Amino acid sequence: MRDGVCVRVRSLVKVYAGTVRAVDGVSTEVLDGEIRAFLGPNGAGKTTLMRVLTTQLKPTAGDAWVMGYHVVLEAAKVRGVIGYVPQEFSVWNDLTGYENLLIYAKLYGVPSDERRRVIEEALEFMGLSEAANRLVRTYSGGMIRRLELAAALMVRPKVLFLDEPTIGLDPRARSLVWSRVLEYREEYGTTVVFNTHYMDEAERYAERVTVMNRGRVIAEGSPGELMKLVGEGVVLQIRVNGDAHAALNALSGLEGVVVVSSENPLKVKLADAQQGIARVLGALLARGVGVEEVVVRNPSLEDVFLKLTGMTIEEAEALGYREAAWVRRAIRRGG
Amino acid sequence: MAWARALTFVELELRRLRHDPTEVFMRAVQPILWIGVFGTVMSRVRAIPTGSVDYLTFITPGVLMQSTSFIAMAYGIMLVWERESGILKRVLTLPVSKFTITLGRSLAGAARALTQLFIILLIALPLGAKLDVSPPHLLLAVLVVFTGSMGLTALSILMAVFMKTRERFMGILQAITMPLFFASNAIYPIELMPAPLQAFSRVNPLTYIIQALRDALIYGDYADCLANLAVTAAFSFALAAAASAVLEKIIE
C-alpha cells in the first residue's frame, strides 16, 4: 500500500563507472500533493536521483517507487504517471511551439479528437498562445522552459519531476515559471518534485526540502524546521577592514554569539538580536577592528547548509567541481 | 497504437524538412556528379561490362542507394545531438516502448532518405538513364528504398548508442559508409571483384538493396526483386530489434 506516499526511495545507490558514488544511500518519502525540493550543489547527486526516479537509469542498489510502482520492475507504469522536464533543452528548436506539443501529445497517446483542445489549453496556460506558430529557435529561455512545462503538464501527470526548472533564467522569467507551476499544482493537486541549487527557490516554493551533499541526504524538513537547525535569532554579516583574525579573536567567547563563517565577511549567529548586535559591535570597536558594513538578516537555508557541511554551497561546488567534471566525462564516455 | 506512435516520429521528420528543406537539395550535389560526370564518362568508355544495359542506367540505382544510405546512416548524428540536449532523456521517459521509439526513428530516417529517390530520378532520367518508372515499378522502388533505409537508420542508431560523441560518430560513419559503397554492386557488377571482396559484398546489405532496385527499375524482374527485398526486410528488422535492445544505454 502507498499510504499517501507518492515517491518512496529506500537506500538508493548509483555508482558510475564502477567508482563514482553519485547517489550514496538515499532514503526519503514524498507525500501525495507535496512540493518537494532536493537542494544541494552541483554534483550532490540530485540529478542522478531524479533520473533513477524517472526510469532513465537503473540504481546500483536500493529501491524506489513512484505512485506505488517500482522504478525498475514497473518502469512502463511509472512512465504512464509522471511528467518530467530535464535540466537541458527538451524541445525541437526547428519546429514551432504548437508542433512540439503536437508531437509530444501523439507520443503520449492523447486521442485525436482531444489533441487540439489539450494543446491550445496548455499553450494558453503557459502564456504562449501568440508564439505558438513561431519556430522554437526564436523563443527566449523562459518561453522554452514554459513550452517544456506545457508538454509535461498537458497530459495531467500525477507527479511532476523538474530538474533545475529555472536554471539560467532571469528573475522575472523564474518567477513566471514558478507562478505557472504553483497555479497548476493548486488546480490539480499534482505532486511536484524539483531539484535546485538556488536556496531561495527551495525556501520559497517547497513545502519540504531534502538537502543533499556528495550523494547523501544531510537534512530534511520544512524550510522552517531546517532553519531551526541553525537556531532562533538572526545572522549578522560583518565586513571588517583588514585582518579577519583580529575580529575573530574579539568575538571569541562572547555570550550568545556563534561564528558560522570565519572568512571576511564574517557571519555570526546571534541568539538575541537586540543585545547581540550591540555586544558584537562593541567588542570589535574595543579591539580597534574597523567595520565597513553590517547586514542583519534572518537565517536562510544557506546558513543551514553552511552549518551542516562547514562550507557554503559555492564552496561545495568548487570542491566538487573536479569530481563532477570527472563524472560527466565518465557518463559521456558511456562508462 | 504502437504504429501510430512510431509514425509520429516520421511526422516529426517531415515537419522539420518542411521548415528547412535545404538539406534535400544539398544532398543532391554528389549524386549529380556521380551520374552526370562519372556515369556519362564511363558510359562512353564502356570499360565496365554491365550486360544488356548501358552504364549510366546501371549505376543510377547504385548512386541512389549511396545517397540514401548516407542520409540514413547519418541519422544517428541527430540522436547524438538529442542526447546532448535533454530531448532523448525526455523521450525515453514517455510511455512508449523502446522498440516503438527505435522503429519510429528508423522509419523517420527512411522518410528523410526517400526524398533522394525522387531527386535522383529527376536527374538521371533527363541524362538518358533508361528506367521504368511506371507506377508498379516506382512503387516497388519506393518500398525497397524505404525498407533498406530503415535498416541503415537502425544501424546508425546502434552506432549512436555506442559512439555518444559527434566526433566519434563522424569517424565511424566515414569508416563504414565508403567501404559499404565500394564493396557492393553499386558502381560495378560484383563478378568483377576479387574473390574476398565478392564474399564481403554478398553479406553487404547494400548489394541486396541495389539488386532489388535494379530489378524494379531496370530489369522488371519481380521474383528476384521480392527475394532481394525479403533479405533487405530481414536485415532491417534485425537491426531495428538490435538497436531497440540497447537504446536505453544511449542516455546512461
Q: What structural keywords apply?
A:
A: Rossmann fold, Alpha-Beta Plaits, 6-stranded mixed β-sheet, 4-stranded antiparallel β-sheet, 14 strands, elongated, B: 252 residues, mainly alpha, 79% helix, globular
Entry summary:
The complex is a heterodimer of chains A (335) and B (252). Chain A has 335 residues and is an alpha/beta fold. Helix content of chain A is 41%, strand content 27%.
Structure description:
The longest helix of chain A has 21 residues, at 313-333. In chain A, strands 6-7-8-3-9-10 form a six-stranded mixed sheet, with helices on both faces. In chain A, strands 2-1-4-5 form a four-stranded antiparallel sheet. Chain A is an alpha/beta fold. Helices cover 41% and strands 27% of the residues of chain A. The model of chain A has no long low-confidence stretch (mean pLDDT 89). Chain A has helices spanning 46-53, 75-81, 97-108, 112-125, 141-153, 171-188, 199-205, 223-228, 244-251, 273-286, 301-309, 313-333; strands at residues 5-16, 20-31, 35-39, 61-66, 69-70, 82-85, 159-163, 191-196, 208-213, 216-221, 234-241, 257-261, 266-270, 290-297. Chain A is elongated and about 80 Å long. Chain B has one domain (2-251). Chain B has eleven helices and no strands. In chain B, helix 3 runs antiparallel to helix 4 (55-84). Chain B is globular, with a radius of gyration of 18 Å. Classes of the chains: A alpha/beta (335), B mainly alpha (252). At the A-B interface, helix 2, strand 6, helix 3 and helix 12 of A face helix 1 and helix 5 of B.
